[in-house]
Amino acid sequence: MAASCVAASELLQNMKLISGFYPKASCVIRRISTTNARCDGQAQPRAKSAPQQLVGVVGLEIHAQINSSTKLFSGSSVRFSAPPNSLVSLFDASLPGTLPVLNKRCVEAAVMTGLALNCTINRKSLFDRKHYFYADLPAGYQITQQRQPIAVDGMLTYSLLGGKKRSQVIRKNVQIKQIQLEQDSGKSLHDDVRSQTLIDLNRAGVGLMELVMEPDMSCGEEAAAAVRELQLILQALGTCQGNMSEGQLRVDANVSVHRPGEPLGVRTEVKNINSARYLARAIDYEIQRQIDVLQRGGTVQNETRAYDSKSGETIPMRDKEGLQDYRFMPEPNLPPLIVYEDNASLPTGIDACQAVVVQKIKEGLPELPSVKRDRLVQTYGILPEHSFTLVNEDGLVEYFEEALKATKKEPRKVIGWVTNELLGHLKQQDLSVSQSPISPSALAELLELQETGHISSSVAKQVFQEMWRSSGKTAQQIIQEHDLGLVSDTTQLHSICQKVVESHPDEVHAIRNGNKKVLNKLMGLVQKETKGRADPVLVRAILQEKTS
Amino acid sequence: MSAFSLAVSRTSCGVSPKIIRSTCKLLSNDGHSATNVEKKFHRRSCCILNVRRLYSSQPHHPKVPQQPTWEAVPEDQLPPPAQIPADLVDKLERLALVDFRTKQGLECLEKAIRFADQLHVVDTTGVEPMDSVLEDRALYLRGDTVKEGDCAEELLQLSKKTVEEYFVAPPGNIPLPRREERAAMLKHSEL
Fold first, then answer.
1. Which of A358, A418, A521, B79 is most enclosed, with most CB atoms within 10 A?
2. Residues in B touching A96 (Cβ below 8 Å)
3. Considering the entire predicted model, what is its pTM?
4. Among chain B residues, CA nearest to A78
């Protein structure tokens, strides 16, 4: 009885609080949520007397699985969805007497990633043990780089599309605090029915790069754009395959809210974000939740929360009781890792295949996505948003450039075919660019036929559809089979135009009275008659002549 | 010694008997009696030591004394002995996943700390701390070729419980009971 009384009075008080704050609060929330949704990065004009709005602050910790054949410290292979425990060495299972042997490929991947993100590569880095007890971590500790990671102080530049038509490219930076090499854990399958956990150690010991980003982002969209850019960079480098659904890229977000200029608020850590789509939603939900808590007069708890994609909410995770003591200690079985600046700095007598040389890796860096986008815009005169579409889709830049080689059509016209027709069809059937039934040269042939006036643009789209369905047939074959060639027989067009003009006296009258736009309607009727095959230039000339 | 006996019996598969033996010996140096554990491991560790001798290139390094030498540091040179509050015992038990809250266990822990206190006497001014004795060695880097794995059967044989090709563990992490609960559970708890 007593308890329910207390609860009721509390509820009442809350209601008072809410009603008291409501007009102001709701307005603030609405304004904030629109900023969140857009993330313009432009200062909102606000009245001097109004209190400053709460804004989100987002930092990310990203675990990227290194794309290597073998694990970080053992020679067992790295593969997704192999039979359980088939990719486990004695070291991975932590049998006594086994020792870690560092994989050179993993070091090079981390150095390469660090260089691509403008990091300082530490000449000397150290390995540490981080202790915690969990069944999928058989050693009871993870080997990581806590004191001195391999790369520090980097910067990731990413872009957002903003502005009214979302066609304005806004560049943003996020600082990379560090990149550290560490081991992945195994996987636990929880069997609630039999109350047991099944352990698969195939993933145990796989090399990870943990990237720590400073809290330089302010909303889900920015975080998602930064992660997407990182994903493209890693894929371009080949240092991580970046497939989020296979756990190759795992993102934890540290989220807090504060008023600009004031110290950062209490943060929560949002875990379990396993797709780019949910990343923005989870973060925006969490920012809004914290704003709501603070505006109700509550306090944000420092806790770990999980994102539930079904409900779209973050929920507290009951894991650690208080602060965990990881008992970090230097890894005694691994001497410091040394990388060398260039060949000149190699000590005498060192085996060349033992040395990681930063300069050599720098020279081998591929074209990064941002450079590629700028090049596409400059070389082909396409719009920035098109360059994003091209670079976002694996293989689409190559397809576009391949198609351009075989047609004289302007790149600005070809881009529409690639980003609308081709990509639309691919997306619809969930195909990758390499699976396209229409090769770049086949598309180029089609575009060339349109460019030289053999077919109209509407027929070209028809032919494209047909080429998609009957893979292997050329545009020329389809045009012949379906008799789709452009009608430029003047006599034939004359008679069709004559028929149209005769049956539409009102329109003709309007044109003669100076309403030239009505001519387009007559042109449409002629095209309907010819199933879109009439040469539009000819038809316009004939109609103008007949209505003058 | 009970703390260490417990630790030994729980983790014996992961700790080299040689280390356990030397730890026990150091601790028992001032007359503390050797335990069953030590005796139990004694024969096996001797074996191991013999094997090492057999394979080592030099039978005996001239700079290493034949017998351990020992010089006790006078008590007055040491800092005051550490007190171990109940909270700390609780934390250590959680971290190490062992119970050692008997009078004997605490005594053993205090002796271990007292033994380590002697390190305070060593003058380390101007000496960079080391992480490892291997610090000046180059870290060997391995090529990225598959050479291990594919031994699920052998590994699973080592596990007490398996299902299909999985190891089986209890659900989640079972947190240690709180101190009060544990005190009630442990018959011989003296704290």
1. A418
2. 13-16
3. 0.74
4. B146
